[in-house]
Structure formats: structure tokens, C-alpha cells
Amino acid sequence: KGVVISHGNTVACIKGFSRRLACFLEEDVPEDESYVAFLPLAHILEFAAENVFLMRGSMVGYGNPRTLTNTSARPHGDLQEFKPHILAGVPRIFDTIKKAVEGKLPEGFKRRLFDRAYEERKEAIAKGLDTPFWDNKVFAMPRQLLGGKVRGILSGGAPMSAKTQEFLMVVFGCSVGQGYGLTETCAVTTIQRYWDTQLENIGGLVSACEVKLRDVEDWKHTDPKPRGEICIRGPTVTKGYYKQPEKTAEAFSADGWFSTGDVGEVQPDGTMKIVGRVKALAKNAFGEYVALDSLESVYVLNDLALPNGVCILVDSQKAYICALVLTDEGKATA
Questions:
Q1: Which residues form the AMP-dependent synthetase/ligase domain (predicted)?
Q2: Counting C-beta atoms within 10 Å of the first and last residue's C-beta, which end of the chain has fewer, N or C?
Q3: Does the structural domain 1-279 have CATH classification 3.40.50.12780?
Q4: Sheet holding 175-180, edge to edge
Q5: What is the pTM of this model?
């Protein structure tokens, strides 16, 4: 399906995105502010982030996932070259960065020291405190992997696991937030605020759209925490699919609401969580509905799994869940 994105959609997206990023960045744009674009330029998240930084007058550098770090590029990677202030990407990239840092951790005493620093910094973040000693002695080197100037990491496109989000916050010392949006909504619907440390949370609405939850089977707004299919309306929402009026009529209501197919849950503070897909649920032998994509995002963190290498299988006649995991010889024999 081709999504028709107008100039009006783009302007609304940039304004909404910029307002939420205001707390991540300085109001007066510093001369050295930079951003590195490494996702395909047709990816709606990259399109949105790139335009925000072009509007700010920042330097935008271009790379790709294979040349981001020093381990895969010579004389150094894109992150070292451009030293971005904000890093926007998809969970697969951040899972890879996490595994790269973990793979270089030393053994013995130094590993125990890292683990202690990690736990103490995690506790400090929960209390709104900092850990300058550990930042200087333990975390200074891994932070250079991202260029040394990153103030915030934004993830979208798929759910980021709680372990990865926590690891990035602790080790890289910056705010790590998830966002939610689709190509049909020009990327931006919700984004976590600066140093919102809630895990598996997609944040609150940006100013450019409105959201409602529509009751569907097994997901109701009358649940203890309101849940339902996320429907979005506003100036960021496309008018439809290119030359596909039937598809447009299926996804868009007469009064402008776009049905995403994603199931959201409203939290007490007004933020949201994605808890599944309307059509990506499977029922096991206990009559429980299992969100397949949520489990896949957890299981893919296993050391044996290749990125995007997990498929969850649920049989309504079986009491267990099966995962098919794609690996390679190096991981299997390590």
C-alpha cells in the first residue's frame, strides 16, 4: 500500500516531534549539534527525524547500520564521525549495540565491578540521582561508542524490550524513550518525555493528534486499565492509500479516524502501552490470548537468536508455547 503524505502532514509531524524533543535539546541550537541518519530514507521515522534537524539548522550526516561503529568501519564509524546529539532508530539496532557492548565486557574482577556499577546506577536513576564516579570510571568507554555527545535515544517501529531500554539508560547515561506511530500517521503519535524511565511504555500524545480506544473482542475500555484498538485522528494522519479506495475505506472512518490494528492500554499517568495486535493474538489450551509480537521481542534477546530470528507458535490444543529460533554456527558453538 502506498501512503499519500501531504506537505501538511509533514509540517504537522515536524512541529509535534519538535515540541516533544525540545526538552532533549538546547533551545538555542549549538554550532556542533548533529544528527546521523542511518535508517533507509524511506523509513517514516528517519524521514521525520531528519526533517526536524534540518529545520533546526543542525548538521545531518548519513550512514548505514553496517558502518555505525568502529568495529565495522575504518578509520572509524559514523557515530564517531558525526557525534550525534540524538540517536533515532529501531529496536533491532539497539539490541545489536547492547550485544556488542556485552560481548566486550571483561571477565573476573572487572566484570564484577561493572555489574556493581550497573546495579548502583540503575538504583540511582530510579531515585532521580546521578553517579559521576561510575560514569567516569566504568561507563566512559562504552559511551564513546555512540560518539560521546548523545543526550537522548529514541526507538520506534517495534516494541523495545525492557532489558534493552534499561541497559541503554544505565550504560550510555542518556534518556531512552520509545515512540509510537505509523507511516499513515507520519511517524509521530506518542513519544516518551525526557528521562521518563518507564519501561515498555510509548509515552504520551504529541500535540499534533488525538487518540481514542475502540472496543474489540477481548479488549475493552471498561477493563481495569482501559484497553482497545488505537484509533488516531489529526493533521499528521494521511488521507488514504494511493489509488486504493477500498483499502482506504477499510482503515479510515468518515470522520477521519484511522484504525491502526494495534491494541493500546492507557496508564494512570495518561501514557500508553502497546499490549498486542487485534489480529496477532493466539489462544492457548487455557483459553489465554497470547500477543505473539510481544513474546518475539523478548525471546529475540537470547544470545542464540539472530536479529528478527524468532517465530512464536501457539496451538489451541497445547498447554505450552513454542519458539522457532534462527541462529548460526558461531552462536550455537560458542
A1: 1-242
A2: C
A3: yes
A4: 59-62, 34-37, 86-89, 152-155, 175-180, 190-191, 204-205
A5: 0.84
